[in-house]
Amino acid sequence: MVFLRLTPARPMRQTLWSFALILTLWAGAAIITHAVQCPLPTPWDLSATGVCIATSLELASLHEYLYHVDKSCAVIIGDVEKVPRTTGFFEIISVAFNLLSSWLTVASTLILGLSHGGSVTVLYGLVVVLIVYGAVALSLAELAARYTTAGGQYHWTALLAPEGTKRGLSYSCGSINAVGRIAMISTAHIIVAQLVLAIAAFHVPSYTIERWHTFVLYQANNVVTIMYNFFVLSRAPWTHNIGFIVSLGSVFLISIVCLAVAQPKRAGHDVWLNTINKTGWDSDGLVFMLGLINPMYGFGGLDGAVHLGEDCFEPAKTVPRAIVNSLVVGFITTFFFAVSMLYCVKDIDAAVNSKTG
Fold first, then answer.
1. Residue 83 CA to chain centroid, in angstroms?
2. What is the distance between the alpha carbons of residues 103 and 150, in angstroms, rounded to a whole number?
3. Which of 140, 270, 291, 321 has a 20 to 30 A CA-CA distance from 1?
4. 24-46, pLDDT tens digit by residue?
5. What are the strands, taking DSSP E only, across the chain?
6. What are phi and psi of 287, to 5 degrees?
7. What's the CA gap between 107 and 238, in Å, rounded?
8. What's the angle, vertex CA 142, arms to CA 187 and CA 170, rounded to 5?
9. Which of 341, 333, 353 is closest to 271 using CA atoms?
10. Residue among 8, 9, 307 nearest 155 (CA)
């Protein structure tokens, strides 16, 4: 309650109350599931009698269960033989990088960083995010090298959590991961719709963007993405490779062209030391922390390669390398692009206050 009184605006309080309600509902679901579900990561055997697989197989321990599933069903963990391996090293790196699309996502949400600290938040925030997500990437890589599973985090939690807490912690981890993935995909699709409409509004000054325009494009993007995953991806997995190459070529081409054309450029002091605070908060440190949502958003899908561990060759080596390489390549391209754009943007206030953001 004290924190609520310290917030600067009523919409913030409403958001916090909504978040508290969602958290309460999620906690209730976690408690109920912990009481009635199978011991994770044991799934329900719906093809048989509706009992837990581990119960029907009368396995003594979780590790024995995993070994049994690995050797019989070949769908959970280890060097499985019955699941076709179709993804090589370059392919999984391409998929991991495309899922991040770090420079694109940071560019599309640059308004958040510019209004919450300016270029200082964007540039130094990327360094902070590299350090934090670097630790996350190394942890994911180590776990992926030891336990190859498409389930990823929830499965590892079930393996490594203390006895008596496996079910609750695994369910919590899996549900948070699932909700986070839905949120990431939703924001990505809405950003695409907003960018398309912003381009239209830029070239046609008389055009006024309506909310329903954004909603229609958002749903159209959902449909196109679903159709691509259902009918195209399995037949043309090389599209990820093309996307990776096009993305790398685009970031350097756009950056170099902008640097060559934009005149005059901003002073180095304004780019590296000048802060902008349009949040209403007095503390620049707090504003910097709030603005980290911009650089952090570019690395939100870092675990993407983990969930392809059962599809790639030599997953114990390929997946960890893909995780680390996607982070490194994502940081290099994003930092290069951000520096280039911040030197080229002549009037940040005009960019922040524009009708398209």
1. 26
2. 26
3. 291
4. 766 666 665 555 455 444 443 33
5. none
6. -65, -40
7. 26
8. 60
9. 341
10. 307
